[in-house]
């Protein structure tokens, strides 16, 4: 069987060929003379050769040919496109109108920030941060940027030096402002103490109040001497009496390093309060406070108790609580007389 594309059938162009690609299957372009009713379509310009005043007797197109919709013929005038200059003028006009509209809007009294970035030098590190949080919450920074050095720190070469604060402390402050909205519940006790220190030095009133509250509610409690040191250093009067009372009731006396932290005067006052507290205990026939030992109880009675919640420690605390409440009240009275009486 011969191939439909064999040279004999394809190249000869015989009429008997059945090949779909044979030359006979392609229509020939024949000379055609436009009919008497023929005229160019709307918008079409027919360009005649020089010296001719009419169409040629024949054309090289099929009699049934017509231009495709939207096609551009030789000599046809293209539609006018918008000029780029006009588009630019239009956009400028629209932006100008919108700017006028924005100018008529009122300023929101709470959320319209005139925020700038400022450079700070803390120890041997440079920081570039927003002024907003610093100026919003700190009297120190409000006065700094409102004064003659208000534009100082805009350039890196003019970074504002912050003295009396470590780079880790300043970073802890910025961590709280930038991330504290969602993460401050995970702030540790040591971080709250750092924030208390920075807030006190740079007059962040709201942050200081939050730091004090968070330290008081921290699951990690402070030792009485550490709480007293913080109360003295950062001026927290509400922590003084509880710390003095705890030291007054403490079984062991102050250590040398503790006395160095609070100073000679307070060490002497605490010694006086402890002596008065023990004199009162001896006068009442009670023993000075010491580590509580569990009450005597038979093993069988202990293991056969019906309520598991009533453990040995709970029974001990319940039995000792009335005496402990009396001791605390008396210690508080002695502390008030020694430390706060005029």
TrEMBL record:
Q: Residues in domain BTB? A: 116-180
Where is the region Disordered? 1-83
**Mind telling me which residue stretches traverse the membrane in this protein?**
none
CDD domains, alphabetically? Answer: BTB_POZ_ZBTB_KLHL-like
Q: Which Pfam families has this protein been placed in?
A: BTB
* SMART domains on file: BTB
InterPro entries xrefs:
BTB/POZ_dom, SKP1/BTB/POZ_sf
Q: What is this protein called?
A: BTB domain-containing protein
Q: Please report the organism this UniProt entry assigns to the protein.
A: Roridomyces roridus
């Amino acid at each position: 069987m011969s191939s439909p594309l064999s040279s004999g059938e394809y190249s000869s162009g015989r009429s008997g060929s059945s090949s779909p690609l044979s030359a006979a299957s392609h229509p020939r372009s024949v000379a055609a003379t436009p009919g008497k009713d023929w005229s160019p379509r709307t918008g079409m310009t027919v360009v005649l050769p020089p010296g001719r005043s009419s169409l040629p007797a024949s054309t090289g197109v099929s009699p049934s040919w017509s231009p495709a919709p939207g096609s551009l013929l030789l000599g046809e005038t293209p539609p006018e496109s918008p000029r780029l200059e006009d588009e630019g003028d239009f956009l400028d006009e629209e932006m100008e109108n919108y700017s006028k509209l924005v100018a008529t809007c009122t300023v929101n009294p709470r959320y319209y920030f005139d925020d700038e970035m400022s450079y700070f030098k803390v120890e041997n590190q440079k920081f570039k941060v927003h002024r907003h949080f610093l100026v919003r919450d700190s009297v120190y920074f409000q006065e700094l940027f409102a004064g003659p050095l208000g534009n100082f720190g805009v350039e890196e070469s003019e970074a504002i030096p912050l003295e009396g604060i470590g780079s880790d402390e300043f970073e802890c402050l910025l961590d709280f402002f930038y991330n504290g909205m969602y993460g401050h519940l995970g702030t540790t006790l040591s971080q709250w103490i750092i924030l208390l220190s920075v807030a006190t030095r740079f007059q962040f009133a709201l942050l200081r109040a939050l730091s004090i509250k968070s330290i008081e509610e921290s699951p990690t409690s402070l030792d009485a001497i550490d709480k007293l040191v913080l109360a003295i250093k950062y001026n927290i009067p509400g922590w003084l009496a509880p710390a003095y009372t705890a030291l007054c009731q403490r079984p062991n006396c102050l250590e040398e390093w503790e006395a160095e932290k609070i100073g000679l005067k307070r060490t002497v006052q605490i010694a006086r309060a402890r002596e008065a507290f023990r004199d009162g205990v001896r006068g009442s026939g009670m023993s000075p406070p010491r580590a509580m030992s569990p009450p005597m109880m038979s093993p069988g009675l202990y293991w056969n108790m019906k309520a598991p919640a009533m453990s040995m420690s709970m029974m001990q605390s319940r039995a000792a609580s009335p005496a402990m409440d009396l001791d605390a009240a008396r210690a508080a009275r002695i502390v008030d007389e020694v430390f706060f009486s005029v």
